[in-house]
Specification:
The protein is an alpha/beta fold. The protein folds into four domains: 17-58 and 178-201; 60-176, Nucleic acid-binding proteins (OB fold (Dihydrolipoamide Acetyltransferase, E2P)), CATH 2.40.50.140; 275-464, P-loop containing nucleotide triphosphate hydrolases (Rossmann fold, 3-Layer(aba) Sandwich); 474-650, P-loop containing nucleotide triphosphate hydrolases (Rossmann fold). It is 38% helix and 18% strand. It has 23 helices and 21 strands. The chain has a seven-stranded parallel β-sheet with strand order 11-12-10-13-14-9-15, with helices on both faces. A six-stranded parallel β-sheet has the order 16-21-20-17-19-18, with helices on both faces. A five-stranded mixed beta barrel has the order 2-3-4-6-5. Helix 12 links the parallel strand 11 and strand 12. The longest helix is centred in the middle third of the chain and has 33 residues, at 233-265. Adenosine-5'-diphosphate (ADP) binds at residues 287-290, 293, 316, 318-324, 444, 468, 573.
Amino acid sequence: MITAMGAQTIPAPGPAPAGAGPLDQPVQFMAGVGPRRTEAFAKLGVATRADLLHYYPRAYIQFQGQVPVAQLRGGENVTVRGRIIETRRIRRRPVRFEAWLEEDSGRCALVWFNRLDLDDKIVPGVSLCATGMVRIYNRLPQMVQPRFELLDSPVATPAADRGPADRWATAHLESVYPATVELPSAAIARIIRENLAEMRGHVPEWFPANFLAERNLLGRSQALQQIHQPTDQTAIAQARRTLAYHEVFLYQLAVGIKRHHQKNLVTARPLRTDEAVDRRIRALFEFQLTAGQNHVVAQLRRDLARPRPMNRLLQGDVGSGKTVVALYAMLMAVAASAQAALLAPTTVLAEQHFLTLQRYLARSRVRLGLLTSGVTAAQRQQTLAALAGGTLDILVGTHALLREDLRFKDLALLVVDEQHKFGVRQRAVIRDRYAGVHTLVMTATPIPRTLAMTLFGDLDISSIEELPPGRTPILTRVVPLAQRDKVYAFIRGQLQAGRQAFVVAPSIEENARELQNVAQLQRQLQHGVLRNFHIGLLHGRMDSAQRHRVMEDFRQRNIDVLVCTTVIEVGVDVPNATLMIVEHADRFGLAQLHQLRGRIGRGRQRSLCVFLSDAAGVKTQMPAAGAGQVAEEYDSTRRAAARLAALEKYSSGFKIAEEDLKLRGMGELVGTRQSGHPDFHFPEFLFDGVLLPLTRRDALAVVAADPHLIAPCHQNIRANLLRQYGDAITLADVG
Ligand code: ADP
Ligand code: MG
């Protein structure tokens, strides 16, 4: 019934795929790069010339060129040229060196902090050209820490201080690269400047000129020129759009090819249900499915009835009822005398799913098993035997399920929970190991549909957007740490009224001193403000038996307050727990906080979620233009504040996911990086309702016309595809 994916034996045409071209050479031997810089580049993830070519600026600074002193305005980056008339060494803190520069139209102060050494180079009488940001201080123009070049001076300007005088003297955009202390942005910019033309000579184009013109895109080579050395803002925008198109196209092509072969080569066992089976399954739930759930059930029934493997993504907020729907599908497999498996990313989650399913199945004869690293060797052997013998119907487990020695008698459906926690490579393993098995992937981190179609282009998508009835909305408040005592006093009152609470602290792995250690927090609460209550402790370093006991105690209300790390992120369902306090909430990601919050609001009582954070109340708009460390730190606090504000404002996971992606900014799409998705460099296009569908349409057109990428016109694309996604899509898929 189930055929493995047939290996393709079509000969590989075209150039050797990877590791061969000039761009695959290490950066080490490029102009301006030696062993030390090679090491510094490695820390930035840049090993080859291709890496450097795709190491894009994170910002650009507009330099206005040379400006008469009389016309200086605060906030602009300019160059001034004149004669030094006076200098001062100031030893009082902040230690600094000051110089007055004069030219025909006026005077300007130059200030360098911690640079008393400059006094033997910058002396009264020398001519000098200085570049930096102007600020107005006591109504006089001033430049702090400018770059400079001595003109007609017998003393050479130290290289680290210098910017070529003619370059700064003309207006231009200066690229700012993500940098380190050893390898500052200016050094990266210089290296790229000196090597760009040569590197671009090796960049193959993927598409013919008319194809690009129709889509208003540039060629790759030109886009790379413009992203590194733009002439103006329009050039930057064009370059970003072009490069975004290329990288998203390539990803769509990879998943499209994978999917094409799956659809055409792999068969699966059709699972059909009649009315009687449908009724029997529904009878297990003590509630009616919501309209949203019924809609998804109908989609699943259609998919599963086909002789091709289902590949569906089910998105929905925590608590929206996904597990119930997944159970429906698993029972369809069982009704057909086949088996189903549920794969969870962590042991805790697997155990919770197991308990949940056990409760739903208590009145049925369905045989359920659990397989995690936590079960004993004897139990494991027994489970494996039951699986192979067909005396187990549904298996719940962790990636222990992916192990080679696992044999199902007749696996028909695989449900994968929290898909985003499995990387692309692991997904490829799952896919290959279980080709021919229907798969349903569930995620509680929903993302906008066009983006989901991009990231999960190989999956059909279902969404549950409403929550089951009877939920009361959660009230969310961000509160400054200074008001912590008040919050706990309020909680005390609620506990007295019979409610239960979660207190979440950043994980014990991050043992930094200022972080709340959960155990310490538990003691502190137990002996302090909450001394009359039972305070439990739960974290990932406890073994599963201990954790079980604690969770069960919490469920049975023997514990009033559960102090925990994010191990409760998913799965816990205690309707009487209506309060949540998250300590140092700014340390968590937006999606994670939303998931955490989903643990409350499950009963009929109104729930309250408090995020304690120093970022509370920080203004969320951008600071005035200003580069450097201060601005970046300010920026991270500002972003934390914006994340928390989004949680106060929105309750839908779909909306929150969108905010999250917007807030992460250029080159920082951490969520997708961690999840093993490719690094999309241009997150602004992940919401682009024009560009995303365009890449998808174009990629699918290529798949339809030339699924093995054999045509000569596809060779450059093919080489790049194998270079970037080779191990995920395998040669069997691409000729
Ligand atoms: P998810 O997997 O999306 O987090 P679950 O399937 O675990 O959601 O459902 C969350 C809770 O809501 C569970 O307690 C479940 O029993 C309950 N539930 C699910 N569907 C319904 C429904 N249609 N009506 C009432 N309660 C429901
Ligand atoms: Mg769930």
